[in-house]
Specification:
Oligomer: single chain
Distance between the termini: 15 Å
Bound molecules: pyridoxal-5'-phosphate
Largest sheet: 10 strands, mixed
Radius of gyration: 21 Å
Order of helices and strands: EEEEHEEEHHEEEHEEEEHEHEEEHE
Shape: globular
Length: 355
């Protein structure tokens, strides 16, 4: 029971915990799940009380609209434990707000704040032993919502399910990745759902990404759907480019996810006195900067990896290598953001939320 609100969260505890079978020194990303999950159903025009239940499969009617019309949205966030075993979230209200932005665009019901925040905190308290403490590791949090209501009619469902599940995750070292700047496919379009964290956006990325992998690249840099002349995102991350000592990223739009890591990096960089330029970036500028030596870094930014450095990019059949430099902006900004997340530094921005 949460005393701050009238929200009652019923808890059904798992009979046995799986925690002793988990090797916390060899955690992959998103493959091991904790003992419990939070479930909340929307029916008869309102959200029912959330329940915490043992982690388990979800049974759906074959005509459930998630299967046919893809009403499915999610969030990705992390919980961190400091040296005193205190638990922290990073800008969780922003994830909550973004979930509802996605819900609205997909004609799904918005979730009240207490259902998200109180439900998440209650589940975290129950699963606190699952939050890894070693450097770089965290408890990955996956809130998601989908159309559970049934019927083959192509219209919004009348029932939905909101779930929060946890996956303890180890430090995410992807290494440097070689990327392909996309000239044909698009992950999103003007007026579309690119700004939403909708499942279908990711489904649409898999095929072009596989084609890039077949050519020896690990990821795709998405370009605008109209001209393919401007860079937009790096795989499932926002993109940053450093030319000389200016850090650049592209403005968010209909087509780009408003990443929480992206906006945190912008604030930290500005606070550190780094020159930050938020503007559209042409592929031709990257090529020119690469050729004249002013292109220093490109990196992706997102919750999972925080910062993911790029070693080089391919465009129109030619490869461009980024220089190996010391003291990168990417490493510096990653350290600043993770120190705030894990309660190792002062949180002058007020982003950390103690659970
Ligand atoms: C398409 C896309 N862009 C950017 C991001 C980064 O967003 P955030 O920093 O909020 O994790 C994500 C999620 O990680 C994403 O899926």
């Amino acid at each position: 029971m949460n005393t701050m609100t009238s929200l009652t969260i019923e808890i059904e505890k798992a009979k046995h915990s799986k925690i002793s079978s988990v090797d916390f020194n060899n955690l992959d990303f998103g493959r091991v799940f904790t003992d419990h999950m939070l479930e909340c159903d929307y029916k008869d025009g309102k959200w029912q009380n959330p329940k915490i239940v043992p982690y388990q499969p979800i049974t759906l009617d074959p005509s459930a609209k998630i299967f046919h019309y893809g009403q499915s949205i999610f969030e990705g966030m992390k919980a961190y434990k400091d040296a005193n075993d205190d638990i922290f979230l990073f800008r969780p209200i922003d994830n909550f707000k973004r979930l509802n932005i996605s819900a609205k665009r997909l004609a799904m019901p918005e979730l009240p704040e207490a259902f998200f925040m109180d439900g998440l905190k209650e589940l975290l308290k129950l699963e606190k032993d699952w939050i890894p403490k070693s450097d770089g590791s965290a408890l990955y949090i996956r809130p998601f919502m989908f159309a559970s209501g049934s019927g083959f009619h192509a219209s919004p469902a009348d029932a939905y399910k909101f779930v929060i599940a946890f996956a303890p995750s180890g430090a995410y070292f992807s290494g440097k990745v070689k990327v392909l700047i996309e000239e044909k496919y698009s992950r999103s379009a003007n007026g579309g759902v690119g700004f939403a964290k909708a499942g279908g956006n990711y489904a649409g990325q898999f095929y072009p990404t596989q084609l890039a992998k077949d050519k020896g690249y690990q990821q795709v840099i998405w370009t605008d759907d109209n001209s393919h002349e401007y860079i937009e995102e790096a795989g499932a991350m926002n993109i940053f480019v450093r030319i000389n000592d200016t850090l650049m990223t592209v403005p968010t739009s209909d087509r780009i996810l408003d990443g929480i890591t992206r906006k945190s990096i912008i604030s930290i960089a500005e606070d550190l006195g780094i020159d930050v330029d938020v503007r559209k970036i042409k592929v031709s500028e990257l090529i020119e900067a690469s050729e004249n030596g002013s292109l220093k870094e490109i990196f992706g930014a997102g919750t999972a990896a925080v910062v993911s450095p790029i070693s080089g990019f391919g465009y129109k059949g030619k490869d461009y290598q980024l220089p190996e430099i010391e003291n990168t902006f990417g490493e510096l900004l990653k350290k600043h953001i993770t120190d705030i997340q894990t309660n190792k530094s002062e949180d002058k921005f007020g982003w950390r939320v103690k659970v």
